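Thread: quick sanity check before group meeting

JM: Hey all, I'm pulling together slides for Thursday and realized we never actually wrote out the predicted structure for the chain we discussed last week. Dropping the sequence here so it's in one place. If anyone has concerns about the input, flag it before I start.
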Amino acid sequence: MVIPIVVALVVILTGWAYKAIKPPPPKICGSVGGPEVTCPRVKLSDGRHLAYREFGVPREEARHKIIVIHGFGGSKDTNLPVSQELMEEHGIYFLHFDRAGYGESDPHSSRSVKSEAYDIQELADKLQIGHKFYITGISMGGYPVWSCLKYIPHRLYGAAMVAPCISYWWPSFPDNLLREAFLMLPHSDQWTFRVAHYAPWLFYWWITQKWFPSFTLTSLLSTDDMEIVKSLPNTDQERITQQGEYESLHRDIMIAFGKWEFGPTEISNPFPDNNGSVHMWQGFEDRIIPYMVNRYISEKLPWIRYHEVPHGGHLFMFKKNECESIIRELVLSQHNSYAE
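JM (edit): ok, ran it. Output follows.
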């Protein structure tokens, strides 16, 4: 009698465990029962769609074309506080897009650090914005910039990373530096990133279970960040994650803190002929991204132009003066590089 009971309990527990760790299927835009498609999209070679939004001067008239890569929980509708006067003065065209799984871009079950670069390349080709372009990555949008610098540097005029995310398991980094940065995180976030790195198959259960706090990183905004948040327009977060939080937010974390094929300090100078530039902007008072890691990268890679904002938190990009300085520096550096 005991054996059948034990077997039944094992079967029940196995079924419960399988259900707990298995994420729900995505609700793909345009599918039966899924969210509707409401914006322009391009179809990629693998059949997926990327949603996009164009901003600034018309692409046919633009002298500078910048692809904007949104961060964690962002979308193509993230607005940069750039004046019409600046865009017209320098002939700037912005191309915003939803990264895979976000907003109205189809999920990508094989999404990786590497795939981000090729999504960007194919988006540029489908819209025929030219062989070369600029990229700007914000926060979690920083790892796609590293991907582009690694895999498609020949397609870039320049790149800017603003408060770019870091991985605590990057190869070719001093262990003590990454450990120091890691221990600055709340314990709940330390465990979340450990699960993402060592047991991604368990991540859905971890982030949805109610027994332990799992993710509190967004509560680490500085005083300056909180003031910026008050000034920002409300975002429709449900629309951003409408195809499933697992396909957007969760995958972002698993990729950023998963196993990379390379470390940033292993990347070669993408502009050895000085015909382009890479910029990194970091707030000294950023409580989400420890400045010492990105400062270390800039010291190891002297071809990165490092800008440390003394009183900047994590969101200083959304201040008009800072944002316009970043964009102006990016597009004008190309000309300055030729002149040097």
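AS: nice. The radius of gyration is 21 Å. Residues 228 and 315 are 7 Å apart (CA to CA).
JM: adding both to the slides.
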